[in-house]
Amino acid sequence: MSSEIRPPLPTSARTVFFVSDGTGITAETFGHAVLTQFELRFRQIRLPFVDTLDKAYDAARRINDAHNSDGQRPIVFSTLVKSDLSDVIRKSQGMHMDLIQTFVAPLEQELGVKSTHTIGRSHNMVDSEEYKNRIEAINFSLAHDDGQSHKNLAAADVILVGVSRSGKTPTSLYLAMQYGIKAANYPLIPDDFERNKLPSSLPPFRGKIFGLTITPERLSEIRHERRAGSKYASIENCRYEVNEAELMMKREGIRWLSSTTKSIEEIATTILQEIKPNRREY
Amino acid sequence: MSSEIRPPLPTSARTVFFVSDGTGITAETFGHAVLTQFELRFRQIRLPFVDTLDKAYDAARRINDAHNSDGQRPIVFSTLVKSDLSDVIRKSQGMHMDLIQTFVAPLEQELGVKSTHTIGRSHNMVDSEEYKNRIEAINFSLAHDDGQSHKNLAAADVILVGVSRSGKTPTSLYLAMQYGIKAANYPLIPDDFERNKLPSSLPPFRGKIFGLTITPERLSEIRHERRAGSKYASIENCRYEVNEAELMMKREGIRWLSSTTKSIEEIATTILQEIKPNRREY
């Protein structure tokens, strides 16, 4: 059954710190990717906005305190652009993984230019075109969630279709938030199956339509969580809807994937590979 | 003016590749943090799902092709867990930043355990409790967007308040998507200012309320994009609303920040530091 939950991993006595002069999101994302290579759970502490020497000394103190109370040295992932701040952390009692210094110095040599050492640069993007696109895309995706609006579909980068609760909404929002992709989504409902046609506003945009499907068993589970015991959630109805939706997508030549065992990150990445919206290269 | 757009950076002749056995999101997030230390734009290509030797050779070929056509060696950020795949990329003509191998080997030594070398482990989380929490939080935040529902506010981790278009919706969705935080949001509107009271369902939950404010000038700009020339967007009305909202938040003892020059990542990080929802440590 796809909804089984993995047993919890054994817990390590170690504390992991993510130290950053910005939000710490990069340090944390990266640290997670490395730590999931180990079958252990760690106590995790994020220390964002460490952008002065005082705050760096504070962070070092917390790392040393964890060393004393855990009896093992903490693991520290840091993205501190200024080397004086990074030095303070390196001298603490943690095992220091310095993500910026490790790669920036060799890149300076390769590119033949000095880095700017600008604190928080990668997240200080409120005024950039890219950031505006992301906010605009979030608003677009919300306004075009669940077939709410047919206006301005020409501006959509991607139009997701699929039965109710197949994962369209979180995927649309993720595409918007992470990539600035304007993603509309339309449910395929029994009315469409009876008419044997896509929702009427969609055919002109076939090139950017992408389908999500799901196994009837998983769909029924998800729908029972929302409306226990309903016909809507029954396995018979889920089988009917999924079957009809897949037939329709085949007939219309719509590319699709099954969301059953995929995370929204994996679904979004696959969609971008398939649809190739103009503004980016994949 | 906070809405000025930075001039575009000079474009480098180099191509940057993000190569991953999973979605490539970690490689890309991390690569961006490093590359923004340089005042250059790069052509960027993401190669996700490189999980077989064949695909690794394909990736190496694309890297070599870019070398030939650019006349400079590409920069390659990779998160390939299996060392045979990573080896293929290392032997290509790119400058290889191997994010996993660089840090996993020292960690194996420090922890005294071997890594699992599981491909895509960090994004293969559909069945985990954490992933389910994220999806549930997205649904909660959507259902409680813009004061739509007063039901089940006890289950919210955070309740954002602020005038219309102060950034509540994207912040709520980001908190849900990135952290599995259930974030409701309520607009503060002229009715509330006239009654001189918070929306009536909120006072029992004061401990988890957080306010967003914004400068009247920026607010007026944003509102004009939505409803040009309206009273709603006029600078006089924006001054009135922002002033009343700030007075109310002060009187009610609500913590708040200005979203004017902050990204949703920065706003979300600050909120988590202030509100400290139960389930995580910050």
Short description:
By secondary structure, chain A is an alpha/beta fold. A four-stranded parallel sheet of chain A has the order 2-1-3-4, sandwiched between helices.
Question: How would you describe this structure to a colleague?
Answer:
The structure is a homodimer of 282-residue chains. Chain A has ten helices and eight strands. In chain A, the strands form two sheets. A four-stranded parallel sheet of chain A has the order 2-1-3-4, with helices on both faces. A four-stranded parallel sheet of chain A has the order 6-5-7-8, with helices on both faces. In chain A, α6 links the parallel β5 and β6. The longest helix of chain A is centred in the N-terminal third of the chain and has 18 residues. The radius of gyration of chain A is 24 Å and the shape is elongated. The two termini of chain A are 33 Å apart. Chains A and B meet through α1, β2, α4, α5 and α6 of A and α1, β2, α4, α5 and α6 of B.
Mean pLDDT of chain A: 89
Provide the low-confidence segments of chain A as ranges: 1-5
Strand order of the largest sheet of chain A: 2-1-3-4
Report the helical percentage of chain A. 40-55%
Under CATH, the topology of the largest domain in chain A is which?
Answer: Rossmann fold
Number of strands of chain A: 8
Beta-strand percentage range of chain A: 15-25%
